[in-house]
Amino acid sequence: MVRRTSFVDIDRIRDRLVSLIRIPSITGEEDAAVAQIANWLQQQDVEIDYWNDGIAALQRDHRYPGHEVERAWAPVVVGVLRGEQPGPSVLLTGHVDVVPPGDYSHWQDEPFSGVTRGDRIYGCGASDMKSGLIAAMAAFEAFAESGRNFPGRIVFAAVPAEEDSGLGTLAAIRGGWDADVAIIPEPTVQDGTPELLIAHAGAMSLRIQVPGKSAHASKRLQGESALDHFITLYEAMRADEKAVNEAESHPLMRVHPLPYATNVGTIRGGLWSSSVMDSLEAQVRVGVPLGETIEQAEARFRRAIDEAIRDDPWLSRNPPRISRLASGFGSAATPEDHPLVQALAESAEEEYRRTPVISAAPYGCDMSGWVRLARVPTVIYGPGEIDLAHAPNESVSLETTYKVARTLVRTTERLLECDVDSLRAMRSPAATD
Fold it and tell me: What keywords is this UniProt entry annotated with (predicted)?
């Protein structure tokens, strides 16, 4: 009997990965990349669902996470394989969008070149996460090309807007797609081998507007510097960040130096160097711990600010205005003893001849959407390296991408043989965000 892993073609993986990298699918501009994946799926004998979910409809959904990039719709493509017998449903999914490449002078090659040097393929999105998406597609196609003699159903979904709050995954869920378990091949490689992530932190974005009072710079004490008052708030943010991280007890999160980071990403304020700054606006990314919802995280942050300004003569009378920019990703976790974790760990050990490290991430991704909104137990396992993501000269190992695809085939085979009730008995709790 021919093993399904033999249908994973490393040459096709390379060609498709290079082709996908060459499509500059910056978040908000994913249409061409999704269309390319739809074209590849059409070459197989599979069911295809390909649609655009309009942004107005997404905004009306009570689960809408916000978005920061202008778009008219979210394009999604889903491929489906149904086996000959009833059984579980396994979802393989990833995002097509990438962050802007930044200053081209920092890149050795054109950012969307897909240049190959030895085992490495270079380009914006190579690691995060076009390699993972192509690995998932290769695993899906291995089942499509090897017959339908399996139980259950395999779903492959390519979504946009992961880099912008996970809007694409919400669109897929709104499209009616569900599964008993899901695997997202986001970058997890450390020291040359993929780790198996079963949890990740969450994050949200807030806007803080700090009032001041203008005065001539030579009479600075007659004014109220919005920058000086922001420093008071900044110190409160750092104290809150410290308290949240010191309170974390999850062993997989405690290995990180800073599991839940609060970061001031932008600051804008002032009109003139000779005037005291009369207003300041900052955008802040707030880390969300495991077990805390977006709503709870925002309330915690607001309490920290309120306590900091209570005894401040200016800020207590002129409090800052805080508004949510985007809900971003809530935190997410799947129990370590879930059959999904066991199936992937055993498959990775077969492929790599060693047991993968079980870990958690200090950043968020689409796992949150599947766990919190669809209640689908989800793990992350992919060929990219997070240290290379969102950075110049991003690259990925072709051999690792190939091995991850084979691991996903083995894992899917194991999961399809699982008892459906055993998978569903450990479904994630409903979202409360």
Answer: Cobalt, Hydrolase, Metal-binding, Zinc
58 CB-side CA count, 13 A? 24
DSSP string spanning 291-337? T--HHHHHHHHHHHHHHHHTT-HHHHHSPPEEEEEEEEE--EE--TT
Identify the bridge partners of residue 53 per DSSP, sorted by sequence position: 74
Does 2 score more than 70 pLDDT?
A: no
CB contact set of 407 (below 8 Å; sequence gap of 6+): 194, 344, 347, 348, 350, 351, 352, 381
Question: pTM for the full model?
Answer: 0.92
Outline where DSSP puts E strands in 309-428: 321-329, 332-333, 358-361, 378-380, 395-397
Q: What is the average pLDDT value for the chain, to the nearest integer?
A: 95
Residue 355 CB-half CA count within 13 A: 6
Cα–Cα distance, 140 to 226 (Å, whole number): 55
**Across 70-76, average pLDDT:** 95
Dist. CA 296–CA 272, nearest whole Å: 38
4-200+331-424 has which fold? Answer: Aminopeptidase (3.40.630)
Measuring CA to CA, which residue among 185, 130, 162 is closest to residue 17?
130
**Three-class SS of residue 17?**
helix
- CATH code for the part of the protein at 202-329: 3.30.70.360
